[in-house]
Design a protein that fits this description.
Elements (H helix, E strand, L loop, with lengths): L1 E4 L6 H12 L4 E4 L16 H15 L5 E4 L4 H5 L11 E6 L2 H9 L10 H17 L7 E5 L5 H15 L2
Parallel strand pairs: 1-3, 1-4, 2-3, 4-5
Helix pairs in contact: 1-6, 4-5
């Protein structure tokens, strides 16, 4: 399994939409926000139900013989400590990051319906961005980093596809 992660605003959802074209039938690409519903949105337990459902779904899809690429904000501990983690031999993590000023500008430019007019929410994403940059090498397993600060969508999507293809059997 592959997790393309990082804070909101780094390009995960946009990259997710372009990956299928580049990967063809070599992997199943999914956007985790598809299941971001109230019943699974429980921060008190670090979103355990949400993470466990995604691990079970990815394992079921993987039975088709194709790995799953899950695009969404997740840190390795949120998946690695779940009982369903045993369903995978490996989970590879690639985290998209950006400079804080660029990330902040991207989030503020989003349409109001996406809810990014909340300064605390932006601060939380900037903190997560900093945490990833500081801790990527020390998480278990470690996260690879891809800086999207100056890259175009096409460049970022191609870089993510290259990263994935290098790890596919």
């Amino acid at each position: 399994m592959f997790a393309v992660t990082g804070p909101s605003g780094t390009g995960k959802s946009t990259v997710c939409r372009g990956l299928t074209k580049l990967l063809g039938d070599r992997a199943v690409v999914l956007e985790q926000d598809l299941l971001w519903v109230g019943a699974l949105h429980e921060p008190d337990d670090d979103y355990a139900s949400f993470r466990r459902i995604w691990l079970r779904m990815a394992a079921t899809i993987h039975q088709s013989g194709r790995p799953v690429v899950l695009c969404g904000t997740v840190a390795p501990p949120q998946l690695e400590r779940r009982p369903e983690r045993v369903l995978f031999s490996e989970i590879h993590y690639l985290s998209l990051v950006a400079d804080d000023d660029v990330l902040s500008k991207r989030l503020r430019a989003r349409p109001a319906w996406r809810g990014w007019d909340n300064e605390q929410r932006i601060t939380d994403m900037l903190d997560f961005n900093t945490w990833i940059k500081k801790n990527a090498a020390s998480t278990s397993p470690p996260m690879d980093l891809l800086d999207t600060t100056t890259a175009t969508v096409e460049e970022t999507t191609a870089a993510v596809a290259d990263w994935l293809l290098a790890r596919l059997p």
